[in-house]
């Protein structure tokens, strides 16, 4: 057994041992809620329970490519509210950067499109944005890229951006339902077989294929869920640990056990 116990102190002890070299993270909207960005499925506060005003046939339609073609207004209304730039990374984002600076982070797989991990200073090459991001955008008809500053202006002014070449709709390179995940995701996924530790943070693990990544780590690899509720298959293996708490609180305690708390605060205050 690699872990001596199912608590944060035992995880820290393992992380300090020679057995723990490759740490992987799978993250979702829950790592950004303390920044003020709502998650999707939390009752009351989640985006999907607050989309009524957008007149959607069902909440996920806001991220459906066929619906978007017919009516891009709901998505752009949401984009206006979620516009990156408005929000500051959380302590959890800084912890991910710290893992990277300590040489432990192999890959951070994120479902989030808020780009807060980049803004926290996690190196680009360590991040897989599995559902894309607001970083680039293009025409959904001819594929022509669209200027980043221009789309920011449009979103800010509540206007819909159209292609300068063919007048098609422009969409940020976010993965919608009905679209495939980026090649980088499929190329990086097999590296999970080398995982010594997996953190699953702030995700309900309801969306596939992302949720299936948890099964790619070896049986001996501890899988640590840090989330407000149980999620996916975490808990079904003997080495699984579930920490049902706010992730900012859990990572602070973990950093303290690792002797990294000062480093963490320094990064966060940057
Ligand atoms: P969800 O809203 O489904 O799940 C967020 C999870 O985070 C929930 O289980 C919450 O309990 C938990 N949570 C919220 N705040 C937390 C906190 N401070 N600390 C710890 N846990 C917290 O969001 P995702 O799993 O990210 O897809 O959703 C996955 C995908 O569904 C998204 O990427 C999006 C959506 O449709 C696309 O946009 C394509
Ligand atoms: Zn076009």
Automatic annotation (TrEMBL):
Cofactor note (record) = Binds 1 zinc ion per subunit.
Instruction: State the compartments where it is located.
Output: Mitochondrion
Q: Which cofactor does it need?
A: Zn(2+)
Where do the annotations place Zn(2+) binding? 139, 142, 163, 166
Give the Deacetylase sirtuin-type domain ranges. Answer: 1-261
Top-rank taxon: Eukaryota
A single GO CC term for this protein reads: mitochondrion
Give the EC number: 2.3.1.286
Show the GO MF annotations.
histone deacetylase activity, NAD-dependent; NAD+ binding; zinc ion binding
UniProt: NAD(+) binding residues: 29-33, 39-41, 111-114, 203-204, 227-229, 247
Show the active-site residues.
131 (proton acceptor)
Q: Catalysed reaction(s)?
A: N(6)-acetyl-L-lysyl-[protein] + NAD(+) + H2O = 2''-O-acetyl-ADP-D-ribose + nicotinamide + L-lysyl-[protein]
Primary location recorded for the protein, binned into one broad class:
mitochondrion
Q: Mind listing the UniProt keywords for this protein, alphabetically?
A: Metal-binding, Mitochondrion, NAD, Transferase, Zinc
**Record family assignment:** Belongs to the sirtuin family. Class I subfamily.
Its name, as the record gives it, is NAD-dependent protein deacetylase
Provenance organism: Sistotremastrum suecicum HHB10207 ss-3
- According to the record, which residues of the full protein are present here? 10 to 279 of 372
